[in-house]
Amino acid sequence: MSKATAPRALSPRARSRARRAAVQAVYQWQMTDDTPEEVEAQFKEKPEFAKADTDYFHTLVHGLIAELESVDQALVPVLDRPVAQVDPVERAVLRLACFELMYRDDIPWRVVIDEAVELAKVFGAEQGHRFVNGVLDRLAQTCRDTSSTQN
User: Fold this and answer.
1) Rounded mean pLDDT, 2-19
2) What is the DSSP string of 5-54?
């Protein structure tokens, strides 16, 4: 998948809602035999989904699943265990954030990490957000130029 840029400016809140729904969708996909299309259709039926950036949700879910092998390979060197042994919620958060770090240069790396940590606080285990933060800090150093305070 080639790196993409945002075609239009959207509300950061709508993007956050898209990430929140995408984490839930990826978790569901990981735990079931549902196709990405089936999962997406289920989320589109939820009333709260109307406030999310639906295009970005689609990009996250389908893009991640299409690039799953490269995303998981990028996570291997920064994890302390195999990807499959990471808690399923934290795995969904890490995979989505890794996808954004790798393929969405238009999203600042600090935003990706901050959003992922918040999602881990909401959906993950009690200290899962610390694990997510540490993994993504290491990953960002390999995927992005983290020496600049701008990005």
Assistant:
1) 70
2) --SS---HHHHHHHHHHHHHHHHHHHHS---HHHHHHHHHTSGGGGGS-H
| 8 A C-beta contact, residue 106 and residue 53 | no
Contact by Cβ (8 Å): 129, 115: no
Q: Please state whether 96 falls in left (phi above 0), alpha (psi between -120 and 50) or beta.
A: alpha
Q: Report the pLDDT value the prediction gives residue 150, as an integer from 0 to 100.
A: 46
Q: Which CATH architecture has domain 12-143?
A: Orthogonal Bundle (1.10)
Closest-CA residue to 139 (of 75, 70, 69) = 75
Give the separation between CA 69 and CA 143, rounded to whole angstroms: 16
Tokens 């893009």 found at: 63
